[in-house]
Amino acid sequence: MSDSADRQLIELVSREQRGLRHILVAGITTLVLVVMMSAGLGVYYYVVAKDLSVKSERLTADSDRLERHAFTMRRDIDQQNNRVAAQEAAIRRAYDEMRQMYAGSVGEQALDRALPVVADYLERGRHSLADERLIEIQSAKPGGGSEGALLKGAAGLLGWERSGAQIKKDDAGLPEQLKLAQESFNAALTDPALRSLAQTGLAWISFMEASSLRSSYALADCQAVDASVGQIGTDDALGLQPLYWRAQCNRKLGRTREALSDYSLALNRVDPAAEDAPDPAEQLIQMNAFHGLGTVLITTADLPPDAEVDAARALAERVCGSGDAGDGSTLMKLTRACLDKAIALRIALGQTENQQSGSAENISFTYLRDGDFQGALAHSKQIEKTGLFAWNELVRALSAEAVGDEDVAREARRNVSMFAPESFNVCELRALMTPEVYENARALISSEHEGFVVACD
After folding, report:
1. pLDDT value, residue 312
2. What is the C-alpha separation between 244 and 291, in angstroms, rounded?
C-alpha cells in the first residue's frame, strides 16, 4: 500500500473518531439535559401534588363538616317536629280541660285536695290544668311547713316539665329549677307523713339526671336512682312512675331479671278503670312499660327457664298477645307483639313517626336474635327513613355487612361515627345481642370512634 493510501486511511479513521466523540458529547449533553428536566419535572410534580394534597384535605374536611352538619340538622328537625307534636297534643288537652272546668278560681275548699293531687302527680304523672293551678297557688303561699315544701317541690317539677328544658351534656350540676325542687323535697322529708312522697320527688329528679344526655344511664347515676327508689318504701308501696324509673335503669344496665320484674309490676299497676278515658301521663308510662317489657323479653333468650321468667312471659302474652304467624321464634314474636303495643300507644298519644320509631327500632334485634340478617336490614332501612337512631344505624351497618350490601354498610358506619359513643348503651346491647353479634358491634363502634374503649363496666 502506498503512502498516499495510508494517509487517506488515517484521515478516515480520525474523522470517524471525531464524529464518534461529537456524537458521544451530544449524547452526554442530551442525557444531562434529560436528567435536569426530569429533576425539574419531579420538583414541579412534588409541588403540585403537595398543593393538591392540601386542597384535597381541605375538601375532605369541608365534606366532613357538611356531612356532620346534615346529620345534626336532620336530627334537630326530627326533634323539633316531635316538640311541635307534643305541644299540639298538650294544647288540645288543655282546651278540652278548659271547656270542662267550672268558672272561678281554686278556693280554700280545695286545700284538702292538695296532697292527693301531689300524690297522683308524683306517683303516676297525672296532672290536669286544675291540678297544676292548685299546686302552684298553694305552693306560692308563705310558710306552710313540710306540706308547703312538698308543694314547692312539685310546683318546681311541673314548671320544669312545662318549660321543655333538658339537662345539657355540658351542665356542671343540676339546673337551678331542679336544684330548688330538690331542696324543697329534702325539707319535706322531715315530716314522716310526707316522707314517701318527698322521696318520690327526689327519685324523679335522680331519674331525670340518669336519663339525661349528660349521663345516658351511667352506672353511678342509675345506682343513685335505685337507692332513691328503694328509700320510698317496699315494692308494694311504689307508684307506677318509680317502678318505671327503676326498670329503665335496670334495662339500660343489662339487668334482665330486675327490669322484667319492674316492668311487669308497672303494667299490673295501670288503672284498668281509665281505659275508656285514659290519662295521657299514665298512657305514656304504659307505653314505656310495653316498650321496656318487649325489649327486655329479647334478653330472656339467654336465661334458663324458671318461675320468675315464666311468669313475666305469661304476663306479656296476656297483655300483648302471642304475636304474628310469620317466621321467627315464639319468643321473638311475643317481643314484637309487645313493641307493637307500645307503637300503638305512641300513635294514640299523637307522637310523630320519628317518635314511633323509638320503639320500632328495637324490633330489629328480634331478627338479629333469630339470625335473620336480611330481615334486620330490611327493618332497619325502613326505620332510617323516619330518623337517625344510634342503635338502628349500628344494626343497619352490622346486617348490611352480614348480607354483603357494601353501600348501605358504608353509609351506616359513617352515621355510627357521628353519634356519641356513650349513646349506644353497650351494657344493654350486650344483653340484647348474641355474643358473636355483640363482639362485631363492639369492634364496629371502636373502629368508628378511635380511642374509645367499648366496654360494659
Report:
1. 83
2. 11
